[in-house]
Amino acid sequence: MSQHRAKSETAWFLAALGILILTSFFLGLGSAPLFDVDEGAFSEATREMMISKNYLTTYLNGSPRFDKPILIYWVQLLCVKLFGVNEFAFRLPSALAGSAWATSIFLFVRKESGNRQAFLAAAMMVLSLQVVVIAKAAIADGLLNCFLAITMFALLNHFKTGSKYALYLAFGTAGFGMLTKGPIAILIPATVCLLFAFQEGSLQKWISMIFNPIGIMLFLCIALPWYLLEYRDQGMAFIEGFFFKHNISRFNTSFEGHSGSILYYIPVIIVGMMPFTGLVFAVLFNIKTLLSDSTNRFLLIWFVFVFVFFSLSGTKLPHYTIYGYTPLFILMARALPLCKHPQLFAVWPLLLLAVLASLPYLLLIALQKIDDDFIRAILTGGVELTGLNHILLIIAAMLFISAIQFIPRFSAEDKLIATGVIFSLLINLYLMPLAGNLLQKPVKEAAILAKKEGYKIVMWELYNPSFFVYSHSLAEIRAPKRGEIVLTTVKELKNLQNTALLYNKYGIVLAKLKQ
Q1: Which of 90, 192, 372, 505 could disulfide-pair with 138, CB 3.0 to 4.6 Å?
Q2: Of 439, 467, 492, at which residue does a domain stop?
Q3: pTM over 0.70
Q4: Rounded to an integer, what is the distance from CA 289 to the centroid of its chain?
Q5: How far apart (Å, rounded) are the C-alpha atoms in residues 70 and 55?
Q6: How large is the average pLDDT for residues 73-102?
Q7: What phi and psi values does residue 512 have, to the nearest 5 degrees?
């Protein structure tokens, strides 16, 4: 193939990837209200930064927030200043980071295996269920995954070629990762490379790489200034809040009730990789063949380390395992040519869609068995928002996916990507707005009412920081007193006497306690 033709082919694949990115990450980016707790917390901390003009320390509801470092808030703030205080602006950094993340996968795999496999790996990343969600979420994880992927690709490049540029790139992006989510941005690269070096018998190379003085200086120049300034501003409260509470304690204990068994991430991966779950098993079934290649060994160590590390962690959240998804997508693309019956991969998304089609009936069954008034209100709202149209829409998606499998001109790769496009459209245009209308729209509407009427709010027995974003105000979190207006749930309303309802929808209540 001539150089001109190769560049033209690469451009076409990049253009196709760009269309998939627009469909998956940007379509409907601001359509659903901010989801609590995480999206609401990040967005409100950014809003308070904009108001206070304190660009060093983040605050949430007036109190210091040490959960994450500063970079995501700076980027969100820039987007808010450009596009206003709205869902699109808060989520735009994640969509842009997801775009760079996908492009880095394409460029890495293209260099290793060519355009077609690169496109497949990047397309599966862009269209998989969990990434579709995380790349549209106003949180730090999309940005971290972007920096983490570039860091790991650069380190492997340095391992293979000795490139100083690749090594400095790795240190630089690790520095930005440290500014995005903290020590995890260096723990994963350093540990995975150490394990890979042991496996390859090149420990000396790892030592010289990790302790490269220029790389260390570059990392420190990027990451250290904010940490020093934050410590100077907040003292030991920052050390205890960020490093001890939100990093060490998350591993040692179940933080904020987010616990689970050691098998927690197995169902997370099965669902999160939809509609490409079948290829995860293809990697397992062909692991011996794949391990004959050193790049595959590096990728597998990367995935396994993340999976084991967070499986052993006391705090478990679904998005933690995404830190190991990048190598898994590449291994899945490499496993596809080894599969004898790729048409069977459609079974996995069809099973999930069958469950979604049954949702109205499942909600009715749950209503008969649950006594909690708040949960019952949500379930009742779910029944109202779903129904025959919901069932018909899901069945239509199932029929389209089934029909794709019988198009003779479509290759196995084409069928996978077409299935992913249908899945992504269903998530972006229907399922995420549905979840937003049910779980978050009542909070947004109550907040807009409070803003319009100038209510001073007390928040009791619930925590929805998105309320602060939409009401453009703070709230006291405590039991309400006579004459005050409280945001609570219908479950707690019965514990309050002599109240006047101001708003009530899907279990979210705004009420005034009479004098």
Answers
A1: 90
A2: 439
A3: yes
A4: 31
A5: 8
A6: 97
A7: -110, 130
